Every structure is written in structure tokens, then in C-alpha cells.
Amino acid sequence: MPPSSLPPESRPLDQALLGIALVAAGYATVAVSDAMVKWVLPEIGTAAAMLWRGLFGALTIALLVRGRIPRAVNRRLLAARCALHCGVTVLFYLAWHRGMPLADSYAISAAAPLLMTLLAIPILGESVGWRRWASTAFGFCGVLVMLRPGGALWGADAMLLLIAVVLMAVTRIWMRLLARTDKPATITFWLMLAHVPAGLLLMPVLPPPQWLPSPGTMVLLVLLGASNGIAHWLFARAFALAPVSLLAPFEYSTLVWGTVLGFVVWGNFPAYGTLLGAAIVIAAGLYNLHRERLRRRESMKEATG
Q1: Pairwise CA distance, residues 133 & 6, whole Å
Q2: Distance, CA of 274 to CA of 103 (rounded, Å)
Q3: What is the pLDDT of residues 250-267, one digit of tens each?
Q4: 8 Å CB contact between 19 and 245
Q5: Engineered SS bond to 50: which of 106, 142, 199, 226, CB 3.0-4.6 Å?
Q6: Contact 205, 156 (CB under 8 A)
Q7: 10 Å Cβ neighbour count for 263?
């Protein structure tokens, strides 16, 4: 059986290492892309940012594959994921437009792997032992530390992002399912393209402050769309090569990138309560991944024994 036909858990080591390299590059790229969109949002608004991101992102993927976009296999799931991901984009853009720092938004989104642990039960039919239940509960205590009343993150924007993180966790699980049937280029192209009609539909509700972007902003919009398309293609490719339990810890690298970019560009630095809560969430997420690796190792031993 060729390596490409094996499930991610059974792929050779070199493919797993390639998956790690791709996902790490993807998270670095998406952090830079998020910094660019946060910079242009005051000028063009949420709806226009989605439209330009989707247009240039889809064009970038089409150029990468020379226009040969593979046909979608699981069309219903692909369409549902695209729609849900557009909702995630809207909520994140609204929070950034209202002034939430990148690092703070990444701290909240660190709860996504914990939510994936819970959502994998009804969606993927996975079982969760008492250790992972306990660590997940501990992780959500970290979320409460970040969002405590009177804290730096307490407010409507944080509540918006919590909703976005729940939706994002669902889209991550759906990407795992799509990676079994569809090519990375297919998943990414249609995800980017879906942002174009979503942005147009939102125009009457969220009209752009300035209809015609300045030349400098247009350059950033091209780079934003291209980098976002490349980042999501890297994610789709990585999850097709390596198991989620191996790649998921790299999601937390966005907190480092967001802190650095936020400090350099806007002079923002997360509050100590935010960092403490994020540390608790990350520790719980890493423990859950450790338990997931042990569980898969035991399952493989039983299967081969």
C-alpha cells in the first residue's frame, strides 16, 4: 500500500515531519496575515476585508495549481465548512475592528483544541476518558481566568470570540474529515472563494468606511489574500500528512506570533491575567494531546497484536 493511501497515524516519519514543517509555517503565515487585516480594517471594514481576502486568496490557490482545481468529493461537508468558517471570520474581524489585540484573541482561541476534544465525541464518535475530561475542565478554568469579570478581556468582544472559537473547533474537525476525501487545493480554494459572496452579503449591514482603498492598502489586501490562501493550503496539506495529535500543539505558536506582532506594530502586550489563563488552557490542551497519543499507540498495538 503506498504511503499516500495510509491514514495520517500510519504515515512514515518523513511525512509526519513534513506535516509539522507545513503547519508551523502555516501558523506563522496566518499570524502575519491577521496583522495585515487588523491594520486595514479601520479603512475598509469587515465586509470588504472578507471580499478582498477571498478574491485574492482564491486567485493565489488557482495560480499555485495552475488552474487545475480538483473536483470536490464531499461537497455538502465542504459547503457547510465554508459557510461556518465565514461566520468565524466575521466574528474575529469585528473584534479586531473594535480594537481587540491579536495576542488577546489568540489567547481565547487557544481553547479551540479543548473544544475539539468535546466535539469529537458527538461528531467523530470518539470516547474520552476521565483524565481528558478532568484536564479539559481544568483548561476551561483557564478560560474563566482570562474572562473573569473586571479583567482585561471582560466585555462583548471576548464573548463574540468565544462563539467564534466554538465554530472554529467544528470547522477544524470537519477539515479532518475532508482531508480523507478531498485535496488540499480543493478545500482551500472553495474556502477562500466563499468569502467573496459572504462579504458582498454583509456590505449593506457593514458598509466600508472607504469604498476605494488607497494604493498602500490595496497592496496589503493582495498580500493578505495571498498569505491567507497559502496558510490554509498549508494547513490542509499538513493535516493530510500527519495526525492531529502531532500537529495541534503548534496552534499555540500563534500566541507567540501575536504577542510579538502586537507589540511591534501597535505597542500592545497581554495582561498578566490573560497570560496566566492562556498558560492553563495550553497546559490542559497539551495534556489532552499526550493522552490522545497514548490512546492511539495502544489501539495500534492491539490492532497489530
Answers
A1: 30
A2: 9
A3: 888 888 899 999 999 999
A4: no
A5: 199
A6: no
A7: 15
Q: Which of 264, 259, 261 is nearest to 33 (CA)?
A: 261
**Which residues lie closer than 8 Å to 27 by C-beta, 6 or more apart?**
231, 250, 251, 253, 254, 257
In a 13 Å sphere around the CA of 66, the CA atoms on its Cβ side amount to 0
Query: What is the per-residue pLDDT across 168-199, written as a single tens digit (0 to 9) for each?
Result: 999 988 988 898 899 988 999 999 999 999 99
Show Cβ contacts of residue 134 under 8 Å, excluding neighbours closer than 6 positions: none
Across 16-20, 46-50, 109-113, 277-281, the highest mean pLDDT is recorded for 46-50
Give the DSSP letter string of the chain. Answer: --GGGS-GGGS-HHHHHHHHHHHHHHHHHHHHHHHHHHHHHHHHHHHHHHHHHHHHHHHHHHHHTTT-PPPPSSHHHHHHHHHHHHHHHHHHHHHHHTT--HHHHHHHHTTHHHHHHHHHHHHH-----HHHHHHHHHHHHHHHHHT-TTSTT-SHHHHHHHHHHHHHHHHHHHHHHHTTTS-HHHHHHHHHHHHHHHHHHHTTTS--S-SS--HHHHHHHHHHHHHHHHHHHHHHHHHHHS-HHHHGGGGGHHHHHHHHHIIIII-----HHHHHHHHHHHHHHHHHHHHHHHHHHHHHHHHH-
CB 285 within 8 A of CB 143: no
pLDDT bracket for residue 1 (50, 70, 90): very low
- For 176, list phi and psi in degrees, rounded to 5: -60, -40
Reported confidence tier of residue 150, pLDDT bands at 50, 70, 90: low
* Predicted pLDDT at 139: 82
Quote the cell numbers at residue 171: 470547522
